[in-house]
């Protein structure tokens, strides 16, 4: 096992529902020095949990009590014991080898590290032209309303210090969870850094993402959060992680 390169402990949260074919590939990319891996199982009907336990000795399993990616992540965050939380996807689209860059960004001064497929060094094998256009529009709207300088709003590779969970105050069930996290991190005045990340295509199965439905939910989240009257802290900092 590789020696832990950071003084902080790290918990990785993996929400999954019927991802038995993908999890061995996902866990194979995780560094050995990760302190804790939590699988949040969305009541899978395949061998997701058994395959996960076999692929990652010491794995912790949380059985989701409700539905939706947002709810799964929130329940995983609540169970995490590490100083740092990293969230990745169970379909193979996020590369666990990039976790080192996210954690290093936090250790070097950031409160919240978000992946970007558009930052230099990032990219995607999966973004369709229509999804990319929608993401850019929603990102631009968020930057306009909240004074941020994000390059990629709708991407689920995020890491943050566990101590900031209360500031994020997460309360949504769906795919819009990433948007909510990005908006509330800025509203809370957290120091935010973007980390270049390369998104890969799903390995097996079909995505539950629907561009129109989920895009609408993201838009509603952006507007609703602005309407709640939360103060936007000018000290929110967004920069490309070096």
The number of helices is 8
CATH 2nd-level architecture: Alpha-Beta Complex
Number of strands: 10
User: How large, in whole angstroms, is the Cα Rg?
Assistant: 17 Å
Instruction: Count structural domains.
Output: 1
CATH class: Alpha Beta
For the largest beta sheet, what order do the strands appear in spatially?
A: 3-2-1-4-7-5-8-10
Low-confidence regions: 230-242
- List SSEs in N-to-C order: EHEHEHEHEEHEHHEEHE
Structural class: alpha/beta
Portion in helices? 25-40%
Domain Glycosyltransferase 2-like: 11-158
InterPro entries: Glyco_trans_2-like, Glycosyltransferase_2, Nucleotide-diphossugar_trans
Keywords: Transferase
GO molecular function: transferase activity
Task: Name a few traits of the molecule.
242 residues; alpha/beta; Spore Coat Polysaccharide Biosynthesis Protein SpsA, Chain A; 8-stranded mixed β-sheet; two-stranded parallel sheet; 8 helices; 35% helix; globular; disordered C terminus
Short description:
The protein is an alpha/beta fold.
Description:
The protein is an alpha/beta fold and 242 residues long. The chain has a single domain, classed as Spore Coat Polysaccharide Biosynthesis Protein SpsA, Chain A (Alpha-Beta Complex), CATH 3.90.550.10. The protein is 35% helix and 18% strand. It has eight helices and ten strands. The strands form two sheets. An eight-stranded mixed sheet has the order 3-2-1-4-7-5-8-10, with helices on both faces. A two-stranded parallel sheet has the order 6-9. Strand 1, helix 1 (23-28) and strand 2 form a beta-alpha-beta unit. The radius of gyration is 17 Å and the shape is globular. The model is unreliable at 230-242 (pLDDT under 50).
